[in-house]
Structure formats: C-alpha cells, structure tokens
Automatic annotation (TrEMBL):
<dbReference type="InterPro" id="IPR038555">
    <property type="entry name" value="Zincin_1_sf"/>
</dbReference>
<dbReference type="Pfam" id="PF06262">
    <property type="entry name" value="Zincin_1"/>
</dbReference>
<protein>
    <recommendedName>
        <fullName>Peptidase</fullName>
    </recommendedName>
</protein>
<feature type="region of interest" description="Disordered">
    <location>
        <begin position="1"/>
        <end position="52"/>
    </location>
</feature>
<dbReference type="InterPro" id="IPR010428">
    <property type="entry name" value="Zincin_1"/>
</dbReference>
Amino acid sequence: MDDRRDAGTTSRWGGVVSGPRPGRMRDRRGRGARGPMALPGPLSPRSVPAHRPSRESFDLLVGEVLKALEQHFTVEPDHVEVVVEEAPLLPPEWTDEVPLSIAAATAEGHRILLFRIPITHRCLTDRDLEDVVWSVILDRLAEVWHMSPDDLDPRPR
C-alpha cells in the first residue's frame, strides 16, 4: 500500500485527501479575499469585513490628510469644504487630461472637489495614492489660501 494513503483519508473516488493545498489561495481577477472570513457575517471574526471598499478607504485617506492639516483650518479665515466625488462631468468635446481636483468659490467660502477615480487610476501602489492625495490637497489649499504648499505640509521632510 502507498505510504501517502496512510497519511490522509481516502475520498470515495479513491484519491487521497490530506488537507488544504500548500501555498497561497487563488485570488481570481484581483478581487481580494472571499468567503466567510472576508465577508461580514456570523462566521467572520467580530463580523468585520477583511477589506474595505475602495470608496471607503479613499474617504478614510482624505480624512487622515485633513486631520493632519486641522491646525491650518482653525487659523485660516476662509472656510474651506473638501468634497470627494467619483469623477468629473466633462463635456463630450473634452480633449485635455482629466482633472484630479477643482477648487471653486462658493457663497460660504471655498469648495475643493477631489475626484477619486482619476486619482486612483494614476497610482500603482497605496503609497503612490497617499502621496498623490497629499499633493492634490496641499496644492488646492495653497491655491485657496495663497500660500506655498511646502508651508502647509506638516510631514517631516
């Protein structure tokens, strides 16, 4: 008898069943983890999903950047609202590059619109995404407050 058969149990078709396959599980089509451990429900730990949707993680990243810049919002006299939109609505004859953000004056102050899809499509890694979000927000705030982006940046150089 084969030694491998003694190590595991046999299936009803005569094959050896010895547990999960070695190595990483397949991530088909780049969608990330699937199954009861990744989806919210009674079988997942604390019913928390293993990953966040890209919209939610982008909003959290923007929130972290704005929290780091909070000291400037309390000092500057102009009210600035930062809003995240999916993508800009562009006319059909648009031929230029899709903008990453827009700063506009409103009756209450200023509004900065960040466009999530154009920003994320220009980034390859999470670190690139973080750097681009920082630079876009700093550039737009510097434009609104008439300052240098380097003066606003609290990150160590």
